[in-house]
Design brief:
304 residues, 5-stranded antiparallel sheet, 4-stranded mixed sheet, 19 strands
Length: 304
């Protein structure tokens, strides 16, 4: 039986390798997440163009292999067991972008830092609130990234994605359901997006970026390994305030710790496991529910 499993796996690996630009077996996902936590991906691949990712989608769908698109590795917690399927990272043309007057057409594998910097150089405003957020454009769109001042939905024109039928389709903004930290795009593979920007002075854009960056530096443990905010803010309140008022700041379990700087962040002290983080999440939910009667909803995604 074990030999049969190995042969099946070897055959699948061979077929995947013929589709994509790069394939690694049992790649540790902790190397690719901002939490620095996570077991191995059974198949870790890089897709460099639309043909590769579409063929990969069709293959995994046919073989009933789970497929997960990895962006910058933030906002996720990968299981200690890893991911028993295909993890794909978008490279090549998905990191390209072009400016068309006050529009930006960009691949969903490009880093937010890269396009924010390019917008600054061109005096184009609308994306500066994403400065300092780790990750890629695709991940930011799927999770409707932003701040209390603005959200990425404000500048979206359209996206191109692989739909449920394996076809590449353009989705206009009016057909995208944007909500707090969530969209109806989660089951699609985002490939490209067109953003609406506007002209501004470079000094004004730099000033806004500095304000946002300084605020994050002051209030968030960005110097530590973390995945970003763990819980969504409940309506009319803040998850961090509730966790702090429940007396949980600084609570440790294994190598994981609730940040003393911002209680809605859990940090990896260097040897944390996914199970350590999950135990802290369990404690936080219980204590906040007990003290305030509020059920905290996860903002991070649990993978594997």
């Amino acid at each position: 039986m074990e030999n049969r499993r190995r042969n099946i796996r070897k055959d699948l690996a061979s077929q995947i390798s013929s589709i994509v630009s790069s394939l690694k077996l049992d790649e540790p996902l902790k190397k690719h997440t901002t939490f620095k936590i996570g077991g191995p991906a059974r198949y870790f691949v890089e897709a460099a163009n639309k043909k590769e990712i579409q063929n990969l989608w069709n293959f995994t769908h046919k073989e009933r292999l789970p497929l997960f698109v990895l962006g910058g590795g933030s906002n996720i917690l990968v299981s200690d067991r890893g991911f028993d399927g295909v993890v794909v990272r978008l490279t090549g043309e998905f990191k390209d972008f072009v400016f068309q007057a006050e529009k930006l057409v960009a691949g969903c594998g490009v880093s937010l830092a890269k396009i924010v910097n390019e917008c600054v150089q061109r005096g184009l405003s609308g994306i500066e609130y994403l400065a300092g957020i780790p990750g890629t454009l695709g991940g930011a769109i799927v999770g409707n990234a932003g701040s209390s001042d603005a959200w990425i939905e404000d500048i979206i024109n359209s996206v191109k994605a692989i739909n449920e039928n394996g076809q590449i389709a353009e989705i206009l903004k009016k057909d995208i359901l944007f909500r707090y930290r969530v969209t109806n795009l989660e089951k699609k593979v985002l490939l490209e997006s067109t953003l609406n920007l506007k002209k501004s002075t470079k000094n004004d854009i730099v000033k806004k970026i500095k304000e946002n960056t300084d605020r994050r530096l002051e209030s968030q443990p960005i110097e530590s390994w973390n995945a970003g905010s763990i819980f969504k803010n409940p309506q009319g309140d803040y998850a961090g305030r509730l966790i702090e008022q429940a007396g949980l700041k600084g609570l440790k379990f294994g190598g994981a710790k609730i940040s003393e700087k911002h209680a809605n962040f859990i940090i990896n002290s260097g040897d944390a496991k996914s199970s350590d983080v999950l135990e802290l999440i369990k404690v936080v939910r219980h204590k906040v529910k007990e003290k305030f009667g509020i059920d905290l909803e996860l903002e991070i995604k649990i993978i594997g």
